[in-house]
């Protein structure tokens, strides 16, 4: 206020009083659900009393607040406390503090804020996704009795007056670096529980009861491994990583290492250094259940590791979280959400198989763990390592642009050669009646006779993938999704793979009454039947979403294959990843083209990744290995390059095409999808989105770099109907990602969806269906 006007308002307080009154200590709160805004609240004095830490209001704790006209109670996160000028209106007060400690470090607050901005979703929603829903309780744990030898006893085991058996028991226990359960000890010594119990009664063995969850129980039985002697490529890459670690700075290293080049050993030795600094490392893997070997290697090398997988109960997750936050964990191995592990002193993040699509979350917040890891590593000033035999083109492009440092491991360990890949042209194999070409069968036969094992990839589950009436052409479709139903012979049902709708297979065609229903198309169940018929004395293991429903079933199945109980492993893409079985001498790809014709600009890239990765599962031992890839399109660049293990060749063809069309990695893409029961309303909402985005973008200035905004749609999505709702989508692309995000954000704020219509927005989408 200008001072010369002071006299006009005698009642006003003097300027210094005004200042004091204007500043108040306020808490800024973000609601967990509800409007995407930040709200200021007054803080009652008792919540600022440092002598009562359990109710102290701090940034990162959750609070209860009155909200809205009716003052209903909402929960929110306190994201800031500080003095602010008093607003004109009267503020409400915080009603209470929910957490006894802060759930979020300042780093995590910044990271989640960035995610909300980048992925165009409410901050509160991101916060809820990052902080695990842990509740108090002890479900999911088991009480075990752990035995150990007191030091005073261990020192004189040889002179004690005990039986020989008892001495063996004491010796075994004293030699074990960790306490053992009764069962473990008995197995190790080869005795019953009797001598152990006698020793316990005599006080020569101590016992304590602990609550352990499944992961910790597993960790009890790990055998430790020593570091491997690195080969030259590994050593070179490790030196580069050490250089970054010693410099204590952020940078991103992309390790392009062919399948079987020993990337995991490099990560482990890098992390050993991080741990020696007293800091923690986060390792992200595509899916814990599919990577039991990788997880096992980490367990064998570190004492304090937390494995965060999707089968953890809330309670277990919460316990891990607390241990990690307390700095008690050295290495966190986790899927996507492991990137939020609350490490107090992070030293390194590793993203293994960084090209995998599972790193992108397909529900809100639709973040990509690689991007979040990048952001987090930069914010905490630590290196980020991305590793893959088939890097995502996004990463490859950034390396080419100098944003990432590219490190190569072009050879396999032990100088084993890459397996020879043969393309089997299905167009020339006219006499083929089943799924297996003559070439593939011969190769399988030779491998099996030689004591080897076989992996067969077919990326479709079920028995028959379409059920059709040859008389009138009608095919069985899901009534809710209008997608072809798959016949599952085991359960004798037709199943929709999108919505899980089930119905009995028709006896007669519902359209024309013909009884000659044809079951066509090939799924893993049919392949299993064929392999079993052709190789009757061979045990065949099938892995797909149908056989792998229960937690732990992947590990059991892979163990059985490793032990040689099964000679043939067949399945969907879940068998294509990361497995390291030296006895696999033949890999067969039943149909390399299944993903090629997807309505997705990444169809070629996905195909290249899948074929290269599955081909890499063989030739990992003394016996070598070979690969047969069946295809109708052997000249396709993705398939031809995969057959030569030639990533560079693939990238050289694919990148210019992406660039010409403005697709990622050259342009940013945002996808809008809406759905509703009325097709007309759904289409109208998509049109509204297009109009609003165009309006928010404004006119295209021909002189501005990046060219005009590319807007595709509205159009029916490839899955045009799902669970009874119509789906429409819109794609917006432009090289200037920030400007694109701003325009879409502004546009979405103006959308007025009618009752019953829903929409989502996906920044950097991976799913195009
Ligand atoms: N220096 C080494 N000497 C001998 N064996 C090694 C060495 N480094 C790694 N290995 C072994 O080589 C095999 C392949 O290593 P690893 O699984 O880490 O490869 P990878 O690069 O991750 O392959 P993929 O991309 O196919 O998963 C493993 O059995 C591993 O124990
Ligand atoms: Zn359906």
UniProtKB/TrEMBL annotation:
Signal peptide (from-to): none
UniProt catalytic activity: ATP + H2O = ADP + phosphate + H(+); Couples ATP hydrolysis with the unwinding of duplex DNA by translocating in the 3'-5' direction
Subunit comment: Component of the replication restart primosome.
Name of the featured protein: Replication restart protein PriA
Helicase C-terminal domain mapped to chain residues: 504-661
Source species, domain of life: Bacteria
Cofactor(s) the record lists: Zn(2+)
Helicase ATP-binding domain boundaries: 244-409
Protein task: Initiates the restart of stalled replication forks, which reloads the replicative helicase on sites other than the origin of replication. Recognizes and binds to abandoned replication forks and remodels them to uncover a helicase loading site. Promotes assembly of the primosome at these replication forks.
Native organism: Posidoniimonas polymericola
Cellular component GO terms, alphabetical: primosome complex
Annotated residues for binding of Zn(2+) 1: 469, 472, 509, 512
One annotated GO molecular function: zinc ion binding
Keywords from the UniProt entry: ATP-binding, DNA replication, DNA-binding, Helicase, Hydrolase, Isomerase, Metal-binding, Nucleotide-binding, Primosome, Zinc
EC id: 5.6.2.4
Biological processes annotated in GO: DNA recombination; DNA replication initiation; DNA replication, synthesis of primer; double-strand break repair
Entry binding sites for Zn(2+) 2: 478, 481, 496, 499
Pfam families reported for this sequence: DEAD, Helicase_C, PriA_3primeBD, PriA_C, Zn_ribbon_PriA
HAMAP family associated with the record: PriA
Binding note for cofactor: Binds 2 zinc ions per subunit.
Recorded family membership: Belongs to the helicase family. PriA subfamily.
SMART domains in the cross-refs: DEXDc (SM00487), HELICc (SM00490)
EC class name: isomerase
